[in-house]
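Sharing a chain and its predicted structure for anyone who wants a worked example. Both blocks are below, sequence first, tokens second.
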Amino acid sequence: MLVTMSNKEPQRLPVIQAVIEKRLRRRDAAAQSQLTKRQVQRLMYRYRESGAAGLTNARRGKPGAHRIDDALRCQILTLLRENYVGFGPTLAAEKLQERHGIAISVEMLRCWMTADGLWIPHARRQPKIYQPRQRRDCLGELIKIDGSHDDWFEERAPKSCLLVYIDDATGRLMHLRFCDSESAFDYMTVTREYIDLHRKSVAFYSDI
């Protein structure tokens, strides 16, 4: 009879033989084999009954006790292909539970979707290549606006937000204003100030 063993199981054979022949204590055998004394006792019994084959895992090659039925797996994958293309494992598991009454762990579903080609793990995805945007040609053609919250006055005044208007073509700071917050009202107020300050250049580009 052909017996398939793991890398560790053949190394346990002389240890179990030594225990049976009373040349080694069970406690020492357990330490050498990284097992418990109870596991050594069980291996001794199986070795006496079946020889070397008794040292192998009895469930090797058999389906797991908690294995999900293949029919249910096929049903789940069919539902995903027909209704949830592009869904990630987490959202797909929620929809299966919510709409179809099928409860399945996210990790299990991720493995199935990966094997079936419905999901590509992030580590396997090709990195996206972003083409750098060229700056505009003329001053005032594009103004970038951003707000920066910081303790600008080093505790000599309350913290505030600095709204900055930057010209895209030159990188020049076109307008700055400290505000209490980065709100839509503040943006509209400061934008009006910017337009009034650069009215001529704004009028010029509006006529082009």
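Comments welcome. Residues 202-208 have pLDDT under 50 and may be disordered.
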